[in-house]
């Protein structure tokens, strides 16, 4: 990249090499897919032959798989990798860095313990960035005085914590995560370290005991005028707007070690008023922060996503402030990591391929999606402004209002988060985050891109944000159901990337969005493929070409080559072999037991019934559950429809395999084996991948096993499938 006006760029972009082989691979697989479809068309069973419908279904499934496979190549086509030069940024802009507002959302003090929330808050307060330019806002949709109390404690602890972090350059800057590491702190600061550790543990004890008791004691209430907000009958669903500035960064008396501004807020709630969940909270924060500090750059994180890298603000600014390309960038998305992934990751929580490949490819097409957390935004673009090429952009700081007192600021801010504020405005539509879709972050990101902006993906070596991954299969499936459902609904909404994005974003990016939006649809052909061929095998009907037939080749080629490709790719991005095998299982379970419900619920919604067959449980993780999680034992545990589907498929395939083989060997004759090989392989693979299910039914005695009741239903269903007359 060249020099512009004598200035070196603030970031560079690398394109992946060795693409010739990849292109050859794609072309050859495309050829195989076409041949498979030709085979299906040419060999359609004639009238009177068995398996006409099954054949038709398989052809449909294969058409879908082929089409979807082509779509997914958009997430492999042209990955790019970004690297930043923070030293150049500092040299050039040391005194002219923009103000940054950090938004943290929390919604429920029971599910999101206040101690976890303030650890996230402290980690973002301690960013390696001029404190007077940093503000942190906590939006509490639970309107909990315990969360407020915890934040008050955090504001005091910050006075010791932030100087400590900066003096010894420690990482990570969530005190909870930092002190969990069995290290002994910095060599030269052992005494400081012990002091701070003591302070932290004192605070942690006070907060957890307060949270356990459920009330804030009267002594504590006297500590801060803010508690008076809870004097009336404030409940989570019915309360006045609250804005409390706990640390006012304008405080000149503390100029020497100024702390970042820290604000607690809870928007007004009334029982009969819709509040639009997290998008509503984000929009409230956008308005409150505009009154208080109005930072040009906004970072938003979930309350369980602490910052694991104190440098990422500067990284993000390297993009936004780059003289040549910066002006068109709306947001910088960082990947989300988890701090409790076990070695072989039985639930596929690490999303390693998504983080290391997909998003780099999206970046190559003009911009990753906004995934709702761990993202730096340009305020302007989030507010719905269109990108205007002719305008030069500088981060001019608005003159700060030093005259108003904190109290006056709070009062003005409260007026911006009343229930009625958004009535007859464009908030939730043209302005701010969009309302009315379960994955509001994705459509918000898409509409920003359609407004002409670019986004970029930044994946630093030292992960930027660390959260907590789900530890039970039920919870994992629920999460995927919610995502795939939301994404599917985008496709049906007016924000469909196909129509809305037409000519506004690149075709490649449209394909990427379509890949995610159509995930749910993959459930039907997958279900078909793991159920129908085994049953037909049991009845001795072949649905695939004979091994000796040359039509067998395209099938064999497509399967082995795509599997080998993804094997190599996965090992490259850090999967273990066992982890990769686990990933295949989760891939299957998502399609069997999460996506179908996404489709089903969307269909119900379309005809106006909003009721789900999916059992929703709270995210409770007892010690027992955690112990099994650490041993990588899959947690089934409850008798719900998704598990019935999984168990039925798992029970069906070995039955078909054994009885089918017996038929073949004893009744029909081994000679037919060649024509059945493909079906034998399908049964065999599905059986192997489900080994943990048989263990959970037959061997395990713990609470995470599959209940006998579920196993019996599955057996019955399998029998029904067997006994049904075939066409
Ligand atoms: C994983 O997350 C759970 C919260 O669901 C937490 O309690 C547990 O300690 C974590 N496990 C590990 C190994 O970090
Ligand atoms: C989090 O930060 C630590 C350094 O404090 C680093 O060793 C670790 O790899 C980071 N975690 C991730 C997931 O990147």
TrEMBL record:
Superkingdom of the source? Answer: Eukaryota
Active site, UniProt feature: 141, 441
**Keyword presence, Transmembrane helix:** yes
Q: Which GO terms describe its molecular function?
A: cellulose synthase (UDP-forming) activity
Example GO CC term: the record gives: Golgi membrane
Chain residues that bind Mn(2+): 278, 302
Q: Alphabetically, which GO biological process terms does the record hold? A: cell wall organization; cellulose biosynthetic process; plant-type cell wall organization or biogenesis
Q: Does the keyword Phosphoprotein apply?
A: no
Q: Where in the cell is it found?
A: Golgi apparatus membrane
Q: Where are the transmembrane segments?
A: 21-41, 53-71, 513-531, 551-568, 636-664, 676-694, 706-724
InterPro entries named among the record's database cross-references? Cellulose_synth, Nucleotide-diphossugar_trans
Sites where the protein binds UDP-alpha-D-glucose = 111-112, 141
Q: Which Gene3D superfamilies match?
A: Spore Coat Polysaccharide Biosynthesis Protein SpsA, Chain A
Membrane topology per record: Multi-pass membrane protein
Q: Which UniProt keywords apply?
A: Cell wall biogenesis/degradation, Glycosyltransferase, Golgi apparatus, Membrane, Transferase, Transmembrane, Transmembrane helix
**Annotated coiled-coil segments of the chain:** none
Protein family according to the UniProt entry = Belongs to the glycosyltransferase 2 family. Plant cellulose synthase-like E subfamily.
Matching PANTHER family, A to Z? X-BOX TRANSCRIPTION FACTOR-RELATED (PTHR13301)
What role does it play?
A: Thought to be a Golgi-localized beta-glycan synthase that polymerize the backbones of noncellulosic polysaccharides (hemicelluloses) of plant cell wall.
Protein name, as recorded = Cellulose synthase-like protein E6
Q: Which organism is it from?
A: Rhynchospora breviuscula
């Amino acid at each position: 990249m060249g020099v512009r006006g004598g200035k070196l760029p603030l970031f560079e972009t690398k394109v992946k090499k060795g693409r010739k082989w990849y292109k050859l691979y794609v072309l050859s697989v495309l050829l195989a897919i076409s041949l498979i479809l030709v085979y299906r068309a040419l060999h359609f069973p004639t009238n009177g032959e068995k398996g006409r419908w099954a054949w038709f279904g398989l052809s449909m499934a294969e058409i879908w798989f082929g089409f979807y496979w082509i779509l997914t190549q958009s997430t492999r086509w042209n990955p790019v990798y970004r690297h930043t030069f923070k030293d150049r940024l500092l040299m050039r802009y040391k005194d002219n860095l923009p103000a940054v507002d950090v938004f943290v959302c929390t919604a429920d003090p029971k599910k999101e313990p206040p101690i976890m929330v303030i650890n996230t808050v402290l980690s973002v307060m301690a960013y390696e960035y001029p404190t007077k330019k940093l503000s942190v806002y906590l939006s509490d949709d639970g309107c909990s005085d315990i969360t407020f109390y915890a934040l008050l404690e955090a504001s005091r602890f910050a006075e010791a914590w932030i100087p400590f972090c900066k003096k010894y350059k420690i990482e990570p800057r969530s005190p909870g995560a930092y002190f969990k590491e069995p290290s002994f702190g910095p060599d030269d600061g052992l005494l400081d370290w012990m002091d701070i550790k003591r302070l932290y543990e004192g605070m942690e004890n006070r907060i957890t005991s307060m949270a356990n008791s459920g009330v804030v004691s009267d002594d504590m209430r006297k500590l801060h005028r803010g508690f008076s907000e809870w004097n009336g009958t404030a409940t989570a669903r019915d309360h006045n707007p609250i804005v409390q500035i706990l640390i006012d960064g304008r405080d000149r008396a503390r100029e020497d070690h100024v702390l970042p501004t820290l604000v607690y807020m809870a928007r007004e709630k009334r029982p009969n008023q819709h509040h639009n969940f997290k998008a509503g909270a984000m929009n409230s924060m956008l308005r409150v922060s505009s009154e208080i500090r109005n930072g040009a750059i906004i970072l938003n994180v979930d309350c369980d996503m602490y910052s694991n890298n104190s440098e990422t603000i500067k990284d993000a600014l390297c993009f936004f402030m780059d003289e040549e390309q910066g002006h068109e960038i709306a947001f910088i998305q960082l990947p989300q990591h988890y701090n409790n992934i076990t070695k072989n990751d039985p639930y596929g929580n690490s999303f390693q391929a998504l983080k290391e490949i997909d998003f780099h490819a999206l970046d190559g097409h003009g911009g990753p999606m906004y995934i709702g957390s761990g993202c730096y935004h340009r305020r302007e673009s989030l507010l719905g402004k269109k990108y205007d090429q002719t305008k030069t952009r500088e981060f001019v700081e608005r003159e700060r209002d030093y005259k108003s007192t904190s109290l006056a600021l709070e009062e003005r801010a409260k007026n911006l988060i009343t229930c009625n504020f958004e009535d007859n405005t464009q908030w939730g539509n043209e302005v701010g985050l969009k309302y009315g879709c379960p994955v509001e972050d994705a459509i918000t990101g898409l509409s920003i891109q359609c407004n002409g902006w670019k986004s970029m993906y930044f994946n630093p070596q030292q992960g930027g944000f660390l959260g907590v991954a789900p530890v039970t299969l039920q919870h994992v499936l629920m999460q995927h159901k919610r995502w795939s459902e939301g994404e599917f609904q985008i496709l049906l909404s007016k924000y469909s990337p196909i129509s809305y994005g037409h000519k506004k974003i690149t075709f490649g990016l449209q394909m990427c969005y379509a890949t995610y939006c159509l995930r749910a649809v993959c459930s039907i052909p997958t279900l078909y493929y793991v159920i129908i061929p085994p049953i037909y095998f049991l009845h001795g009907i072949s649905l695939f070409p004979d091994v000796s037939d040359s039509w067998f080749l395209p099938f064999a080629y497509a399967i082995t080559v795509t599997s080998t490709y993804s094997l190599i790719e996965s090992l490259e991005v850090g999967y273990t072999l066992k982890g990769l095998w686990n990933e295949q299982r989760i891939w299957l379970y998502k399609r069997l037991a999460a996506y179908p419900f996404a489709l089903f619920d969307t269909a119900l919604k379309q005809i106006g019934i909003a009721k789900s067959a999916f059992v929703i449980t709270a995210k409770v993780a007892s010690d027992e559950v955690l112990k099994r999680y650490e041993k990588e034992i899959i947690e089934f545990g409850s008798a719900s429809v998704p598990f019935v589907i999984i168990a039925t498929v798992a029970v069906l395939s070995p039955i078909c395999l054994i009885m089918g083989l017996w038929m073949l060997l004893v009744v029909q004759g081994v000679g037919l084996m060649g024509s059945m090989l493909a079906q034998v392989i399908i049964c065999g693979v599905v059986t192997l991948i489900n080994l943990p299910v048989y263990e959970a039914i037959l061997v395990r005695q713990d609470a995470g096993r599959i209940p006998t009741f579920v196993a019996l239903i599955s057996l019955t269903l399998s029998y029904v499938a067997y006994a049904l007359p075939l066409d």
